Amino acid sequence: MKKLILLAGLIVLAGFTPKKPFKVVFFGDSITEYGAQPGGFITLLRDRLKTEQKDKDYEVAGAGIGGNKIYDLYLRYEDDVLTKNPDEVVIWVGVNDVWHKRLFGTGTDWDKFGRFYSALIKKMQAKNIKVVLCTPASVGEKTDFSNELDGDLNKYSQIIRDLAKQYNCDLVDFRYTFHEYNLKNNPENKDHDILTKDGVHLNDVGNKLVADIFYKTLIK
Amino acid sequence: MKKLILLAGLIVLAGFTPKKPFKVVFFGDSITEYGAQPGGFITLLRDRLKTEQKDKDYEVAGAGIGGNKIYDLYLRYEDDVLTKNPDEVVIWVGVNDVWHKRLFGTGTDWDKFGRFYSALIKKMQAKNIKVVLCTPASVGEKTDFSNELDGDLNKYSQIIRDLAKQYNCDLVDFRYTFHEYNLKNNPENKDHDILTKDGVHLNDVGNKLVADIFYKTLIK
Amino acid sequence: MKKLILLAGLIVLAGFTPKKPFKVVFFGDSITEYGAQPGGFITLLRDRLKTEQKDKDYEVAGAGIGGNKIYDLYLRYEDDVLTKNPDEVVIWVGVNDVWHKRLFGTGTDWDKFGRFYSALIKKMQAKNIKVVLCTPASVGEKTDFSNELDGDLNKYSQIIRDLAKQYNCDLVDFRYTFHEYNLKNNPENKDHDILTKDGVHLNDVGNKLVADIFYKTLIK
Amino acid sequence: MKKLILLAGLIVLAGFTPKKPFKVVFFGDSITEYGAQPGGFITLLRDRLKTEQKDKDYEVAGAGIGGNKIYDLYLRYEDDVLTKNPDEVVIWVGVNDVWHKRLFGTGTDWDKFGRFYSALIKKMQAKNIKVVLCTPASVGEKTDFSNELDGDLNKYSQIIRDLAKQYNCDLVDFRYTFHEYNLKNNPENKDHDILTKDGVHLNDVGNKLVADIFYKTLIK
To answer: Which residues of B touch A95 (CB under 8 A)?
Structure first.
């Protein structure tokens, strides 16, 4: 009799033990940092998961810090990402690695960009974390490749594409997507105000687009 | 009878008064400096003028100095170009204005590039010198706009195209031509060795192409 | 009789012809531009000339434009300075030639700094204009030579000192004076707020000091 | 009697158990890399330890790689230093963190320089490794602080001095020592050829001086 009651209790308990949701952490720079704010793409993703009643299956969190380059991610990975116990980490970095060459003389050499990126992927994969890579979208939205940093952004994006292949990671190619979107929607060849507020940071349309792409890519 | 003698006299006179050839001076940086060396495009042009017996109609000369930017041309215009009494000046500059930002931190702001370029054109046109503008060809020959400086080179080329319109000058759009040539002849997306030795300075094929283009543009 | 009348007329005429004051034009960058504003050193100089009743002997004017480097001065010399018919021109430039290397990658190579500076001096001396040179004071007021640009500022200041000797110009060595002043008055090794608002642009104390130095140097 | 035998046994035993020498690893950039070559300061140290019969007490090894900045040391610390089982690590880095701002636009922000340096010290101290810090000696040997990078080198040296205090590490202040040496031995204010071949990399005199300083500091 006692056993039966215990069993019943266990069954009830099991019913109340929610499955731990699959946790996705977005790891990056200011674009990701702003993504966690109201209206940002991470917030939009979280809202949509709730609306579509998938918030028991998926959880999203941001780990973006403004001004971060690939080696900053490498330095703070343990403290800021591993402690969140993620099942999947989406790395979106590269804009500052290129931009800070011009702004402060402190960008990242392309070969060291690859070296730190590889080391970061390996650390995560060693913990069985699924890693998703993203190419840097834009520093300036002009479509004729006359934004000052287009050459380097294209180069570093290619490095990321190659790393995705090498380490068998999913790739979200924002560099390609943003360019294609602008070719259709930026007939005046404007520097910003299409998907970004300032050429770099997402406006409402940009956040919506990015949230949609991530939803399709990450949520099954 | 008198008329005949007069006519004969005129013929003799004409025979003794050689027509001054139309003088073209190439004004620029190291690309132009090397152009005046054996095998360079200015030398090739001179050879061809001789072969086609046009060397009495046209004379070509180089005024290129390595490392020059637009304001260097402005500074030495009187000494190095005006003293040559040119009928036509071909300005080919811009590579260092962009490149030296990265190499030495001493490139040229885009707005000042335009300002010095305008001032130089005006000085020449005030002397009734015909001015021909050229866009900078390349710093790196990769065709997917992943050469580090492609963005800025495209931007500065557009400034030059706009100046050509504004001041009613002929334009030789090497930026466009080199890209088109590479799209056809650089399937491996190589950084150099198509039209240049090092991404910037012309190899034999490049000198030949440039000489051909200038011949078609300048020689009637 | 006629002669006497004529002579008298000339004397009267001379009496009505006021002596043209000796005109000093300050030619430079934003520091000079701000110098012409209320509280700026040029305004202070003008006030003092009035107070000391020397405003009939001396006239001061500003020709400063923010962001200017030595070659910008060279470009706009005819329009902005020569048109003012100056007897004396005080050139104060150099901060941006060094600083813009870091800020925008568009500073001035040291050798070209000297070349444009020489050309500018020669142009003025050819018009019998007295030329006074100034060294750039500071980008950061720390006294232990740990301001990022101290090395280059010291180097470019030395170039200016050498030019002053070479062209026999008076020199106002603000680089030296500001450093000495800070050694005495900046015990906390502060970056700004001693003679400048931001390490570069003069605060009230700075404007007062600069006006005093110029008064002593320029006004006899 | 038993005691004597025991004692004798201990002596014999001691004789047979070679004491593991105290291992010092030099961790840095090209200066350290060259230090391990013939004539380099690490080689000189090893020779002197042998001459003075201290090579059973001390062992020295190099772990320098050209072009390394502080974050490169952080990335390769486990592979290149920890695997050598050092008792003491001498970190000598900083030249490239400053220099590469100018050379490639890829120097290290001062705040991140401190952050990576701290993280590296902590990692080592957690393994009970004694850590010795060195300030960057020079990029140019001129004594009047007119070497282009003097400002930043002074700033980064101060960061290292502060870190040495904060983490209770020994400090070898080459920035100070080299400047003092040059004040005495570089009356012509030469850019190099006093302690360095090129302003940065040690010549024979420099290697001798550095080896002497390290010997005094590290060997008891």
So the answer is: none
Closest CA to D146 of D206, D190, D184: D190
The string of pLDDT tens digits covering residues D55-90 is 999 999 999 999 999 999 999 999 999 999 999 999
Instruction: Establish if A208 belongs to a structural domain.
Output: yes
Tell me what pLDDT residue D2 has: 60
Helices (H), chain B: 2-16, 30-35, 41-51, 70-80, 95-103, 110-126, 150-166, 174-185, 204-218
Average pLDDT of span A119-147? 97
Q: Is residue B6 part of a domain?
A: no
CATH number at residue D153: 3.40.50.1110
The CA distances from residue D12 to D8, D15, D17, D23, in Å, are: 6, 5, 9, 25
N residues, chain C: 220
pLDDT of amino acid B192: 97
Contact present, A97 and A108 (Cβ < 8 Å): yes
What local confidence, expressed as pLDDT, does residue D19 receive? 79
**What is the enclosing helix (H) or strand (E) of A132?**
strand A130-134
DSSP H helix total and E strand total for chain A:
9, 5
The answer, for C111 touching chain D at a CB cutoff of 8 Å, is: no
Per-residue pLDDT, D6:
59
Candidate from A130-144, B9-23, B137-151 with smallest mean pLDDT: B9-23
What is the predicted pLDDT for the residue at C120?
98
pTM above 0.80, yes or no: yes
Interface probe, candidates A104, A145, A156, A159, chain B, greatest B C-beta count within 10 A: A145
Q: Domain of B172?
A: 24-218
Nearest-angstrom CA–CA distance, A53 and A43:
15
Residue of A nearest to C106 (CA): A102
Task: Give C-chain residues touching D152 at CB under 8 angstroms.
Answer: 148, 151
Pick from C105, C145, C158: which is nearest to D151 by CB?
C145
Contacts of B112 in chain C (CB under 8 A): 72, 106
Biggest CA pair distance of chain A:
80
**Token pair listed for C181:** 């002043």
Decide if D63 contacts D90 (C-beta within 8 A). no
CB proximity B102 to A under 8 Å: yes
Which residues does chain B have within 8 Å of residue A152's beta carbon, measured at their own beta carbons? 148, 151
Average confidence (pLDDT) over D172-200: 98
Phi, psi of D107 (to 5 degrees): -75, -170
Question: Which residues share a beta bridge with B63?
Answer: B27
DSSP D82-140: GGG--SEEEEE--HHHHHHHHHTSB---HHHHHHHHHHHHHHHHHTT-EEEEE----SS
The token pair that represents B218 in the structure block: 């300048």
| Structural domain includes residue C71 | yes
Q: Given a cut of 60, is residue A7 above it in pLDDT?
A: no
- Model confidence pLDDT, tens digit, residues C151-171: 999 999 999 999 999 999 999
Cα–Cα dist A29/C49, whole Å: 56
Closest residue on chain A to C105 (Cα): A102
Number of domains in chain A: 1
- pLDDT band, very low/low/confident/very high, at B77 (cuts 50, 70, 90): very high
User: D138, D146, D156, D173: which to substitute to probe chain C, counting the most C Cβ within 10 Å?
Assistant: D146
**Percent above pLDDT 90 for chain D:** 91
Neighbours of chain D (3+ CB pairs under 8 A): A, B, C
Domain membership of residue B10 (yes or no) is no
Mean pLDDT within C130-146: 97
Cα gap C69→C108, rounded to integer Å: 8
Chain B residue with the nearest C-alpha to that of A159: B146
